[in-house]
């Protein structure tokens, strides 16, 4: 039996619960419940129920856009078979091998591979590719990882890099650095991560999935792993609150807690379509929101449809504020969670606010959202809901509250699943501590031998609502900086690297609630300068720049510092405030310099060395090459490399921080032209994600000529190349 929906344009038009097979709920109180057991359960009892929905294809039939549990089961079997062929499956000598994944892959691929690894008896380890090579090396050694999925073909030699895409080259270069740092005795097998088209080939042919009634039997033929309650099922890592990220082990009791957490709240998840493409799949929140609650509640994940690049290769679609909202509209998602930075982008666009208003819930996760922005969205009818959690704990806030909190959107309802302790601090603040209980268990940084009592200090400071049983996060007990893009920076190691420079007495990083970090530098007395003298300032920054570069190399990519956000102070006039023990008082220092910090962020938005003066000839006509050269200089400066003008910038190392910086300079570039009233879209970097496309947009604006859509023959050419690449299908695995 197959399950179909009437053809229509969006999920809302197609979605009616009476058209679905009835979702058979698993027994979530089963003491031995694990994600891989739920895969078997759904393949048997919910084979035609959707696991995921994709945006409509051009040759649209609704069944082409649905990935059911039957298809997931079939794909899990194929991955497990390939894993065995590659020699990375469990053996008597190594019954629980750790298999890492380090990739910016589509969440659909990522989650399917993780479930397949669990079902095969391996321990998947989700590693953020944003880590430095040194941090990745540390994680691989600490976890005992023996096999690692990467985004390039390990069989290709260094001299064959011309056959790689830019994204594959970046992945290869990063892994080359890691392999240099790994000791010789640590043998690591590299596996090429499968693409969406290799896992789900029918998406390429735009055909319906052929139901396979034998999938439950085929799956049962793969030996199910027997796990103890303390044995790790999966590994994640912290964001780097110490010198290196910490290993975090998730055992059956932990994951069962995570899967059950939605059941302790009044919001009904069954049948809801979540925007799973928003959050990084390697983050705990992304994995939980896009995969685990599917297993336990019957909600369905919305994903991007896989795309072909100009070279005919299947390329991961890099999520951004533009294409995410486009997919949410196309799918008709009902629940989504965003970073504060993304919501800030949407708040300035009425059509985006309208799209958010149509969602049942709009979660905010990973960092603080400006009160002004949040209030604006609430007034626009957006149902904001604070989502607060930690990798070691899982969700701490209710997931989700029965009713939206309206003007109290900055607060959250504590999950009834948790047992907590609130330690009083000054100014009526409370430090949140989580205690283990029969309902919930925290993850651990060591492999447990028994499920003993736990006490986990979040190091978060919260305050209670004056009249309601709600709480709000206001800061950290430690010095961790939470950025508006949900990333976290531990400033200590980077500050120590900078302070080691003989010209720097102290370094103090800032950036809470901002899109990127900045730093206050206090020069040594012998290097004190007149901070009103621009030449002296530039000379000082040049002098200490090697230490900034060293700190940037040490820290994760989201923590890097730029010249524009370096604030040098004069220690003879306003030294950094210190405690009686001589340590810098971070809170007092940030309060003392808060106006200057705000000013430096404002100035950063305005800084640009570029001009359009040479973009016009004597007759006033636009000189296209001059515009392209100007855009190329801006992009190359921020990416610190020579970028391919035709390729997607986000496959060449560009991230949201780079995008913000490049857009700021494009704004100034346009303002330097004859028409300074031109509005540059907030999502311009995502709508036109290459030097060529950005240049074409600027040229079209300056010459008042509309941009043309990609020609159909170009799309056909990509399709032809795709056919050549994937026919015949060959699975290649090599050992490095």
Tell me what the structure shows:
Residues 621-702 form the Carrier domain. It comes from Melampsora larici-populina (strain 98AG31 / pathotype 3-4-7). This is Carrier domain-containing protein. Keywords: Phosphopantetheine, Phosphoprotein. The protein has 736 residues and is α/β, with parallel strands linked by helices. Among the domains are: 482-606, GMP Synthetase, Chain A, domain 3 (2-Layer Sandwich), CATH 3.30.300; 613-705, ACP-like (Non-ribosomal Peptide Synthetase Peptidyl Carrier Protein, Chain A). The chain contains 24 helices and 26 strands. The strands form nine sheets. Strands 2-1-10-9 form a four-stranded mixed sheet, with helices on both faces. Strands 4-3-5-6 form a four-stranded parallel sheet, sandwiched between helices. It has a four-stranded antiparallel sheet with strand order 18-19-20-21, with no helix packed on it. The longest helix has 21 residues, at 534-554. It is globular, with a radius of gyration of 26 Å.
């Amino acid at each position: 039996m197959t399950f179909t929906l009437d053809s229509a344009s969006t999920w809302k038009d197609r979605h009616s619960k009476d058209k679905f097979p009835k979702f058979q709920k698993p027994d979530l109180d089963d003491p031995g419940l694990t994600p891989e057991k739920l895969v078997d359960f759904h393949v048997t009892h919910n084979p035609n129920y959707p696991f995921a929905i994709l945006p409509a294809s051009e040759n649209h039939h609704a069944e082409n856009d649905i990935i059911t549990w039957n298809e997931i089961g079939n794909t899990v079997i194929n991955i497990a078979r390939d894993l065995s062929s590659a020699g990375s499956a469990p053996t008597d000598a190594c019954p629980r091998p750790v298999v890492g994944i380090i990739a910016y892959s589509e969440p659909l691929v990522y989650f399917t591979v993780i479930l397949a690894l669990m079902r095969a008896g391996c321990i998947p380890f989700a590693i953020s590719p944003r880590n430095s090579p040194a941090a990745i090396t540390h994680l691989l050694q600490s976890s005992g990882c023996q096999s690692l999925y990467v985004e390039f073909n390990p069989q290709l030699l260094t001299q064959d890099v011309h056959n790689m895409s830019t994204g594959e080259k970046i992945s290869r270069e990063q892994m080359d650095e890691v392999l240099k740092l790994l000791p010789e005795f640590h043998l690591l097998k590299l596996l090429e991560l499968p693409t969406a088209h290799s896992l789900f080939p029918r998406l390429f042919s735009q055909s319906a999935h052929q139901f396979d009634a034998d999938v439950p039997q085929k799956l049962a033929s793969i030996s199910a792993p027997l796990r103890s309650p303390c044995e790790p099922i999966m590994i994640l890592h912290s964001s780097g609150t110490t010198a290196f990220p910490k290993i975090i082990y998730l055992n059956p009791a932990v994951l069962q807690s995570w899967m059950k957490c939605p059941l302790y709240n009044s919001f009904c998840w069954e049948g809801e379509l979540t925007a799973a493409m928003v959050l990084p799949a390697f983050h705990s929140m992304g994995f939980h929101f896009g995969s685990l609650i599917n297993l336990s509640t019957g909600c369905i994940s919305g994903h991007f449809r896989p795309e072909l690049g100009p070279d005919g290769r299947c390329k991961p679609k890099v999520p951004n504020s533009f294409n995410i909202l486009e997919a949410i509209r196309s799918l008709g998602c009902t629940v989504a969670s965003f970073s504060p930075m993304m919501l800030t982008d949407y708040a300035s666009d009425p059509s985006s606010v309208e799209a958010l208003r149509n969602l049942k819930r709009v979660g905010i996760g990973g960092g603080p959202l400006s009160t002004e922005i949040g209030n604006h969205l609430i007034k626009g009818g957006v149902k904001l809901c604070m989502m607060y959690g930690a990798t070691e704990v899982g969700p701490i806030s209710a997931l989700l509250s029965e009713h939206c909190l309206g003007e109290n959107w900055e607060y959250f309802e504590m999950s009834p699943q948790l047992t907590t302790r609130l330690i009083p601090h000054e100014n009526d603040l409370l430090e949140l501590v989580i205690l283990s209980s029969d309902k919930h268990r925290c993850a651990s940084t060591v492999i447990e031998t028994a499920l003993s009592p736990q006490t986990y200090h979040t190091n978060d400071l919260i305050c209670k609502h004056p009249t309601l049983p709600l709480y709000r996060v206001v800061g950290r007990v430690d010095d961790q900086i939470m950025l508006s893009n949900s990333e976290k920076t531990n400033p200590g190691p980077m500050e120590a690297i900078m302070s080691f420079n003989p010209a720097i007495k102290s370094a103090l990083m800032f950036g809470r609630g901002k899109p990127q970090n900045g730093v206050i530098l206090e020069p040594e007395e012998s290097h004190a300068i007149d901070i009103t003298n621009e030449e002296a300032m530039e000379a000082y920054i040049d002098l200490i720049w090697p230490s900034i570069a060293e700190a940037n190399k040490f820290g994760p990519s989201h923590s890097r510092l730029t010249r524009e956000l370096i604030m040098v102070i004069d220690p003879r006039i306003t030294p950094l405030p210190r405690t009686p023990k001589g340590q810098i008082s971070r809170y007092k220092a940030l309060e003392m310099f808060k106006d200057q910090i705000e000013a430096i962020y404002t100035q950063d938005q305005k800084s640009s060395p570029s001009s359009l003066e040479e973009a016009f000839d004597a007759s006033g006509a636009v000189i296209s090459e001059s515009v392209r050269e100007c855009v190329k200089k801006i992009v190359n400066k921020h990416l610190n490399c020579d970028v391919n003008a035709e390729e997607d910038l986000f496959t060449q190392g560009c991230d949201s921080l780079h995008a913000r910086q490049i857009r700021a300079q494009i704004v100034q570039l346009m303002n330097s032209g004859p028409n300074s009233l031109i509005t540059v879209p907030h999502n311009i970097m995502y709508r036109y994600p290459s030097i060529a496309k950005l240049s074409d947009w600027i040229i079209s604006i300056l010459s008042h000529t509309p941009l043309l859509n990609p020609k159909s023959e170009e799309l056909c050419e990509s399709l032809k190349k795709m056919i050549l690449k994937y026919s015949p299908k060959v699975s290649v695995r090599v050992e490095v």
